[in-house]
Amino acid sequence: MKLMKTAVLAGLAKKAIDEGRKPQNQAKIKQAMGRAKAKKRTGR
Description:
Elements: H1 2-20, H2 23-42
């Protein structure tokens, strides 16, 4: 059971890394990070 869980997590991590390399997704990630930082600064 643990082997299956590890395999699934590895597959999800690979997919996330592959998608994060695409330029359009990098822009989305940067925008999301900016919003998260702004919320953290305001405390809301």
